[in-house]
Design brief:
By secondary structure, this protein is mainly alpha-helical. The chain folds into 2 domains: 2-75, no CATH class; 104-146. It has 6 helices and 2 strands, in the order αββααααα. The protein has helices at 2-10, 26-43, 47-69, 76-86, 104-128, 135-146; strands at 15-18, 22-25. A two-stranded antiparallel sheet has the order 1-2. β1 (15-18) and β2 form a beta hairpin. α1 (2-10) runs parallel beside α3 (47-69) and α2 (26-43) packs antiparallel against α3 (47-69). It is rod-shaped.
């Protein structure tokens, strides 16, 4: 009853197909089970069992309410069911990123800074030779030589 009422709280309009009856919404199935247990309390010898079902229904209703509000994230079984369901989902290779393109002024300023740095490196080569360059300067010179712009 707890499971039935928790699921009925989360997805009340989910249809369940019953044999010889057809589709029944989960909220009506849970309500019917609750009424049957409520009616069976005075007439049967198993009053404790019916009271336990009603208690389970109330606990399931409370758990489903808290779960649908997002106040609890679920327990181990909820996480395992979600992970096992995700195993069969198709993974997308697309990644969404957003970056603001440079304005013309920013691009031109960056290009001027880069050109000044390259001119400084080339002047250093002219005065002191290639071996006087640092590792970063050599890498910048190599990257500039590979640039097709």
């Amino acid at each position: 009853m707890a499971i039935l009422f928790a699921v009925a709280r989360i997805r009340p309009n989910f249809s369940v197909y019953l044999f010889l009856i057809g589709p029944v919404k989960l909220k009506y199935l849970a309500l019917g089970a609750f009424v049957i247990d409520l009616i069976s309390i005075p007439g049967m010898a198993n009053t404790g069992g019916h009271l336990a079902h009603i208690g389970g229904a109330l606990i399931g209703l409370y758990y489903g309410w808290k779960l649908s509000e997002g106040r609890i994230t679920g327990n181990f079984f909820d996480k395992m069911a979600t992970q096992s369901g995700n195993l069969f989902k198709r993974k997308s290779n697309l990644r969404v990123t957003h970056s603001r393109p440079m304005s013309d002024m920013e691009y031109n300023a960056m290009k001027q800074r880069r050109q000044k740095e390259l001119d400084r490196i080339l002047e250093k080569i002219k005065n002191s030779g290639y071996d006087s360059l640092s590792k970063e300067e050599k890498q910048m010179l190599f990257n500039a030589s590979q640039d097709k712009n």
